[in-house]
Amino acid sequence: MSKRGKLMVLSGPGGVGKSTIVSKLVDSPAFYFSVSATTRAPRLGEVDGKSYHFISDQAFDDLISKDLLLEWVEFAGARYGTMKAPVEEALSKGSNVVLEIEIQGARQVKASMPEAIMVFLKPPSFAELESRIVSRGADSPERIAARLDLARSEMAAASEFEYVLVNHRVEDVLDALLSLATS
Ligand code: 5GP
Q1: For a FRET experiment, which of 47, 71, 93, 116 has its CA 20 to 30 Å from that of 8?
Q2: 79 CB less than 6 Å from ligand 1?
Q3: Considering only CA atoms, which residue is closest to atom 24 of ligand 1?
Q4: What is the pTM of this model?
Q5: CB of 18 closer than 6 angstroms to any ligand 1 atom
Q6: Is 151 touching ligand 1 by the criterion CB < 6 Å?
Q7: Is the CB of 75 under 6 A from ligand 1?
Q8: Residue ID of nearest Cα to ligand 1 atom 9
Q9: What is the chain written as a DSSP string?
Q10: Per-residue confidence (pLDDT) for residue 138, from 0 to 100
Q11: Which regions in the chain score pLDDT beneath 50?
Q12: Residue with the nearest Cα to atom 12 of ligand 1?
């Protein structure tokens, strides 16, 4: 039987660049990306089953009631959750798994799987984060304002994480994550 893989949680404020990092990380065969379920609408270019499983509120209720989620949250007006079964299957096959999730979900994962490697990704400055959130342009003004408020409070959670990486250069963050997973 192969050695069990490692579970890595990459968290940090929305807009910090987690998904860019993760999309590059999973190019490396060392990682399996857990595709989350969400009730939010797809953004331009997002592919169902790859970026997220885009599902209805009712389907999400179903996942909760059948206890199929490792963690889930309500975030910026939508629900997001990690499916238990694919994560468990990948870990037991020896793959490292990366979860790209926000902070409340990261706390839930740490509580149920304390062996998880917990990484917080920080922006070089709050001003930089703000401009990324605003320039993403896919959300309504109300939603952008809510995301900025959330990002402010999310930044305060960095101290709860074992590892804090500043997203100056994507390549440096990738190197750091790979060495955490393989050490
Ligand atoms: P977005 O709507 O910008 O794709 O994601 C919003 C936030 O939800 C991001 O911080 C992202 O990391 C987080 N997120 C995505 N999937 C999940 C998930 O399955 N669980 C949790 N807790 N957060 C998630």
Answers
A1: 47
A2: no
A3: 101
A4: 0.92
A5: yes
A6: no
A7: yes
A8: 14
A9: -PPPPPEEEEE--TTSSHHHHHHHHTTSTTEEEPPPEE-SPPPTT--BTTTBEE--HHHHHHHHHTT-EEEEEEETTEEEEEEHHHHHHHHHTT-EEEEE--HHHHHHHHHH-TTSEEEEEE-S-HHHHHHHHHHH--S-HHHHHHHHHHHHHHHGGGGGSSEEEE-S-HHHHHHHHHHHHH-
A10: 67
A11: none
A12: 101
Quote the pLDDT of residue 1: 57
- Options 3.40.50.300, 3.60.110.10, 3.50.40.10, 1.10.150.130; CATH of 7-182: 3.40.50.300
Domain boundary assignment for the chain: 7-182
Q: Name the residue type at position 51.
A: S
pLDDT on residue 142? 87
Return the best residue to mutate from 20, 36, 134, 135 for the ligand 1 pocket (most ligand atoms within 8 A of CB). Answer: 36
Ligand 1 centroid – CA 92 distance (Å): 24
pLDDT of the residue at 144: 86
Q: What is the pLDDT of residue 111?
A: 97
81 lines ligand 1 (CB under 6 A): yes
